[in-house]
Every structure is written in C-alpha cells, then in structure tokens.
Amino acid sequence: MKTILSGLGTATAPLYATQEEAYKFFTTHCPLEPAEQDLYRRILLDGKIKGRYLGMDATIDALETDPDRLLARFLKFGAPSSRPRRSAPWPRRTSRLPNSPALSSTPAPATSVPASPPTSRKIWG
Asked: Is residue 106 helix, strand or coil?
C-alpha cells in the first residue's frame, strides 16, 4: 500500500507554560486545601508532560469568569477555522435501525400534549 502525505501542519496557541509555572500559578492564585495542592502537584509535576500551549494572552486570563470575555477568548483561540471541512471518505450513518425516523422520508407523527392537567382528580389531600 502506497501512502502519500499532501501536507502536514500543526497549530499551537501563542502562550506556552511549563508544568512548574502552572503549578506555581495555581498555588499562588487559588486557595487550595493541602489535599488539593498535593493533587495538583502530582498531576502537574510528576508526569511526563513538560508544558502546555494555552489559548489565552496571559496566564492571569485563566481566572476570568465573565461569560462575554470567555466567549471572546474562545472565538479568538478556540473557534474552528473558516475553511470548509472536508467530508469523510465514508458515508455517515445516522442510525442503525432500519425503520428509524432519522432514515424515514416521512415526518414523525405529532403528539398532542394537554395544555393543563385534568382538574377532575384531586392531587393533594
């Protein structure tokens, strides 16, 4: 079998932080219980990962809680590119059931829901 690569690319966020920097940031800016501090130390310092690329302008942005600013950061660093996505070389399967409404060409029947519960029955006492 012959394999040909037509292109190879990587994308990394602009901010790189080592695991030591991340651990120092968490212990400095977040009130952690001793057990939590030990957990972060084990996760960030005892592993094989040396650092991480972060989708933010500065490490202090990790403390941001304003939804509008979080959304703006996602749109800046995390939104997919505007380039159209290529479809998969195989057809997508929407359902495994042959009589599923997802595969049917006729719409599913509408169900009626009463506007209010029946009043003839006592619910309380």
From this structure: coil
Q: In 3-state terms, the chain is what percent helix, strand and coil (to 5)?
A: 30, 5, 60
User: Tokens for 21?
Assistant: 């920097």
Helix (H, G, I), strand (E, B) or coil at 26: helix
pTM of the full structure: 0.53
pLDDT tens digit sequence for 101-116: 554 455 555 555 555 5
C-beta contacts of 18-23 below 8 A and 24+ residues apart: 18/50, 18/51, 19/44, 19/45, 19/47, 19/49, 19/50, 19/51, 19/52, 20/44, 20/45, 21/51, 21/59, 22/52
Tell me the domain boundaries of the chain. Answer: 15-78
